[in-house]
UniProtKB/TrEMBL annotation:
Residues 151-356 form the Nucleotidyltransferase-like domain. It comes from Celeribacter halophilus. InterPro entries: NTP_transf_8, NTP_transf_8_dom. This is Nucleotidyltransferase-like domain-containing protein.
Amino acid sequence: MITLPFGAVCRGVSLATQSVIHQINNMLYNCEKWFIQHVVTLPYRSLMPRFHTPIGSAAYHDLLRLAQDEQVGEIIGTPTRVSVKGRVFWYDKFRVGSDMAQRYIGPDSPALQDRLARLDALKEAREARRRERTRLVRLLRADGYTPTDQTTGSLLNAFSRTGVFRLGGTLIGTVAFRHYEGELGVVLGADALAQTGDMDIASFERLSFAIGDQVDTPLEEVFKSLKFVPSPSLDPQRIWRWAQSSGETLVEFLLPAQGEESLRDLPALGVSAMALRHLDYLIEDPIPAVSLYRSGVLVQIPRPERYAVHKLIVAERRRAGDRLKAQKDRAQAALLIAVLAETRPDELREAYEDALARGPRWRAQIEASLRLRPDAHAILTEVTR
């Protein structure tokens, strides 16, 4: 705190002068207090999210619906329900020569059942649906939604076409964060959308084994066609990272750790993946999203409320040399918390309370992050009252 050295200055001076010095010290104290509250914490106090127009929001969710219709419309055989370890999945069963084959469609849900009931109509409307998707993407760009860049878009399109997201792959990290612009209708801005060049895809190991299906084209071939090469690993027999030979993009595959953080296999995707803690929380019950590339690419991302809380944990797990990344993690979390408190407070509260209930280490990491983001802490305190 800035103050005048009262004792030293006041030796030998009158009481009137001492009173003036005391008043000046009070003024300095109040000025510094105001500066800390209104200037130093300004970035934390400015969480006033801006939203896209209702027309843009409606257009995005129409595009998402049409992209999901398109995926189901690609069924070539007979949709069949299959129970696997207590869960119900749908498969496309068809004949290949004299043999029967099956292709994984997705987990059972009312929305999927509705689309399957309209399968013939969805197939007939394919061309009209393509034209409408193109129109909606054009409308969203005009409304200020951020289109996906060429490198990211080509990767997502290739992954979507070969079945990465259909088979349980979930985008995480900043590439996933960009898709909340459409899901939540919020203007993210250039700073929030700044990317590191990395793309992370996570999946549950048990789901990858349970569904009994694989990507249509091996990912090794997909990466080779896009000029990516395997990145060196401690285990040369297990490849879990690919680097772009002519750029800075790095793609990594991850899965939730059930014990130690080590390399494991994801048979549905045909790759290995690094096991990390806390990912089970992040990718639980993911949601579909559309990337604004070409006529829209259907992907899968974490629920925004889980992404926000998970980022608070990730920021605390960063190494000492990754302070800028930790700040970015907390900034993304704070922005989503502000948006969700306004639009989906119940979902935000449930995700926050779920994380806090997972043990003292979870609580300690979340609380440590929130001490550095008093804006987000204040919002969560209000939401959980």
